[in-house]
Amino acid sequence: MNPSVWRFPAEWEPQSAVLIAWPTEDTDWAARLGEVEDTYIALVAAITRFQPVVICVPDEDVQSYAFVRLASNRIDMDRVQFVEAEYDDTWLRDSGPISLRREGGFRLNDFRFTGWGGKFDASRDDRLVGHLHGACVFAASAERREINFALEGGAIETDGAGTLLTTWRCLHERHPDVARETLTAQLSDWLAQDRVLWLDHGYLEGDDTDAHIDTLARFAPDDAIVFQACDDPADPHHVELRAMAEEIAALRTHDGRPYRLFPLPWPQPVLDAGRRLAASYANYLVINGAVLVPAYGDPADDAAAAVLAQAHPGREIVQVPCRPLIWQNGSLHCITMQLPDGLLRARPG
């Protein structure tokens, strides 16, 4: 690869940190804040075993509170960095920077975040990347590029070698008047991709994102795709996810070979006051030396971890309790954004 050309790194490439935002009573987590905080503590504990984490907080009081909660759980606070920033909610996969890199620098693609097509207020979230850039969170070599186009990080998946995977349902919902060919060209340009692979099938009940790819299918190293399967013919997802699996099986690598496929087991339905929640094992996070896997207290949790161990050999598999997260229709990957190696500005001292 030409080191002078922009490239969108794969998630399994070296990282400098993971970016998250602390849940507060001013976010949608307010009604179940205690449970969600416990999940965040478990997440930070898992990340800091392997690398730093950057935590957005709205003010000094929340920072002090979060510090005490984390430190009391014996987390390595030398690997925790706080930054004050305004945010509406904590889904940083969708409001955080989509980072490209080349020799000597980084580009922070700052797309419009519209609250998943205007479903929720997101004015503060939409300013988050600009705020973090202005606060010198990132290396001096990082340039910010504003792009007046609605796109969430959870809607796209890259193999780091020029192939993007996404869903037509989501992108068409955001941009109903734009043809697929135009969207393909735009995404290829902005994200430095050679090609875009589209999935026309796949969804989860309770999903606000209009079928984000990171709830359905993910690239893995060495031309592999991990995807959420459904083996229960009585489940309403069965037909759609089977059609998605057939689409994925028909995809080809750059050199024309089928992808190696890793279907994930299907968790039992999780209901909240009769509402089905969007539980997906595809919403995992890859970090340096590990894969963090959402666990839902389901018999399939261990089987999902085993599949991901096969798809990401050589990495430790760490289960993180994520049942509280799906109450708000997202999971582990949705609340995180990895920062490629070198992107985080070194702290003094």
From TrEMBL:
Keyword Signal appears in the UniProt entry: no
Any one GO MF annotation of this record: protein-arginine deiminase activity
Pfam families from the UniProt entry: PAD_porph (PF04371)
Organism in which the protein naturally occurs: Luteimonas deserti
Keywords per UniProt: Hydrolase
Cited InterPro entries: Peptidyl-Arg-deiminase_porph (IPR007466)
Any Gene Ontology biological process: putrescine biosynthetic process
Superkingdom of origin organism: Bacteria
Name the record gives this protein: Agmatine deiminase family protein
